[in-house]
Amino acid sequence: MPNVAIVTDSCASIPESLLQALKIHWVPYYIHCGREVLRDLVTAQREAFYQWLPTARELPTTASPGPGDYVNLYEKLAREEGASEIVSIHMTSKGSGAFQAAKVAQSMVQEHLPNLRIEVIDTLNVSMCQGWMVIEAARAALAGKTLADIVGLVKDMIPSTHMIQTADTLKYLYLGGRIGKAKHLVGSLLNIKPLIGMEDGVIVPLGQARSRRRAYEKMVEMVEIAKGRLGGVKIAYVHAAAVEEAEKLKQMVEERLTTVESLVAELSPALGVHTGPGTAGLCYAPAVAQV
Asked: Of 112, 172, 216, 218, which has the fewest Cβ atoms less than 10 A away?
C-alpha cells in the first residue's frame, strides 16, 4: 500500500480499471428511488439504471455519503491497512455535502486516532475533473510522494481543470436543483444544444449550438485554447449511456490536437440522475509533471 492513502467518492466516475490499478479507495453516494435507497455503483449499476431512468414517474434524488461512511473508511485504512496519512478528495462543496461530511469525519477520527493525518480537499469541480485530480494524487502516492506534495499537486490542478458537456435537455439538472447559473437555458428550443461547465464550483452556461456536432466543434475550440495556455492536456470523454457520442467527440478532438493522455468514462448513476441519459462531454486537466 502507498504511504499516503487516496480516498474519493463514486461521483468521480473513475473507470474501474484505474481504481484498482492505482489503489484508489471510494465511498458510494446514495440514490433515493421512492422508498428504495440504492448505493451508487454498488446496488445501482450504470447500464440498468440508465435504461430505467427515462421511464421513472418521479425523478430520483441523491444524497452524499454521511460522516459515518467516511469514518468507517478512514478507520479501516488506518487499522486494517496501516495507513498513517490520507488525502480525501471531493466534488464541489457548492453542489454536494460530501466535503463537509468528510471534514466532520476527519475531526471525529482524529479524536481517537491522533497520529492519523487526514487532508480533505474541495475540488470545486465534479465528474472526471474530480477524477483526474484523484488519479494524479494516486499516482503520486504510488511513487512515494509526501502528503504535502500530493495536496499541493491537487490544489495546483483545481484552477486549470474544467468540464464542458452538452445534452438534449437540461431538465434533469433543473429538476434536481443543480442548474446553477445556467437556468435561463432550460427554456431553449428543442433543437438548441446547450453547453455547460463549472466555474468556482457552480454550473455555468458556456454557450449553445444548433446540433450536437456543432456543440462538439465548440468543445474542440475551447480545448484548443486551453491547450495553448496549459501546454498539454489530459482529457476524459464522459457520457451517460452515450458511449457512441463520447467516441465521436474523442475523434473530433484528437483529429485537431494531441493529448498527453485520454480515456472514456461513463458517469456514475448518482451523477446521471442530474444530467440524464444522453449527456456527453469532456473533462480536461493540465498535464502534470510525471512522478
From this structure: 112
